[in-house]
Design goal:
This protein is an alpha+beta fold and 175 residues long. The chain has two domains: 96 residues, Arc Repressor Mutant, subunit A (Orthogonal Bundle), CATH 1.10.10; 77 residues, Dna Ligase, domain 1, CATH 3.30.1490. 42% of the residues lie in helices and 10% in strands. The chain contains eight helices and six strands. It has a four-stranded mixed sheet with strand order 4-3-5-6, with no helix packed on it. A two-stranded antiparallel sheet has the order 1-2. The chain starts with a helix and ends in an 8-residue tail after the last strand. The protein binds zinc ion (ZN).
Length: 175
């Protein structure tokens, strides 16, 4: 049995890259592993800093280009900059979780937290085709995606549950 081939097909990273024709270089592997290992939705700069001193040399440009490549083929999502002077506020953030889910962004710290899948689904399901159809007919535009971002901070639960500011952010393909 060709041991090498067996090993390649069992490699989880290779099996994610191969169907998308993404060549599995060492650089891409370490960037993807690092992105998958974190829930912090890092910027390219943050990932680059984290990967410094590792066994694979990576420039910031390589990290950035690699993340952009992942986004282009659907291995990652890019979250737009939140703006401001917060850490990472002026840079795009990256997310290896590519299925529909909502985020809560803290305006003070810039922290982005995933909303659990079942709750994300519940919110998105409530923005159904009927509501979107009414919006379309009222404003005369075709809705192509729904973006939802929740804004909140830790230790302020009562404020969050009594009505948070919502801004369109998260992309969802309309059913
Ligand atoms: Zn996320």
């Amino acid at each position: 049995m060709p041991a090498k081939q067996t090993q390649a097909t069992q490699d989880p990273i290779q099996s994610r890259f191969a169907p998308l024709n993404v060549r599995c270089t060492q650089q891409r592997r370490v960037v993807f592993e690092a992105l998958c290992a974190t829930r912090s939705h890092p910027t390219a700069e943050q990932l680059h800093d984290q990967l410094q001193g590792g066994h694979v040399a990576l420039s910031l440009a390589t990290v950035y280009n690699t993340l952009e490549k992942f986004c282009a083929v659907g291995l990652a999502h890019k979250l737009p900059p939140s703006g401001g002077r917060r850490p990472g506020g002026g840079s795009s953030r990256y997310d290896a979780t590519v299925h529909d889910h909502l985020h809560v962004r803290c305006p003070r710290t810039g922290e982005i937290t995933d909303v659990p899948d079942r709750l994300s689904r519940e919110v998105l399901d409530r923005i159904g085709p009927d509501l979107l159809g009414r919006i379309e007919s009222e404003i005369g535009m075709k809705i192509e995606h729904v973006h939802v971002e929740l804004v909140g901070s830790r230790g302020a639960r009562s404020a969050a549950t009594s009505g948070t500011r919502r801004r369109p952010r998260h992309r969802r393909t309309r059913p």
